[in-house]
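Operator note (shift B, R.M.): manual run for GMP synthase (Glutamine-hydrolyzing) requested after the automated queue skipped it. Running by hand, logging everything below so the morning shift can see what happened. Input copied straight from the record, untouched. If output looks odd, do not overwrite the archive copy; leave it for review.
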Amino acid sequence: MPRLLIVKTGDAFPEVVEAHGDFEALFQQALARAGVSAAVFDARHEPLPDLAEIDGLTITGSHSMVSNAEPWSEALKPWLVEARRRNLPMLGVCYGHQLMAAAFGGVSDYHPAGRESGTHAVTLTEAGLADALLGQLPERFPAQLTHAQSVLEAPGDAVVLARNAHDAHQALRYGPRQWSVQFHPEFTPAVMRAYLARQVAALRDQGQDPDALLAGITATPEASSLLVRFAEAVAREAGTA
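Run finished. Output pasted below as returned.
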């Protein structure tokens, strides 16, 4: 079994936690379907783990904002830079995506078009179609999204793997074993509905139709497969598959 670590960077809404589990639990549930377990490190309250004791890591979403530069979040940046230097497999999700990009020289901040929420199509780039992790997905697939901030400028050496009409950086690769995605592979349709229910007023203020977004929620099996694919890749490279 690979030594896989979930880096927890925030908590889901209380009603989501009660009904479905917190962010790290959603990751663990998705991984458990493939028989993979993962330890959890809460970056807000625990000291940074020794990278030598980890075979791979994933970084969760958060209700925090990367641009707020909270001390615990800033402390993760050099740790992630060192993890990349060691070529440790990494997969950042939402906040994790934005944090990795910022740590490696990009810019993450509020998206000028506002929030993106609901089930939306994501399209792979030519590089994405050839990518070791994302290349097994269809060229265009649905994904669950909820974010106000985005990677506005990708690091100069990052490769854009996926985009959509809202966000030019839906997926990035920073090295042979380091990826991040703006969408939520761990979200189920029920979790996405719970998030949209919380955002009705904000979405209406933004000129969007929350009822249409709710009606458009679908299953996202292709996007959801990424966590397991990543864990399986980590296991192969660690010699524990």
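Quick read of the result: The longest strand covers residues 116-124. The first helix runs from residue 14 to 20.
Leaving this for review. - R.M.
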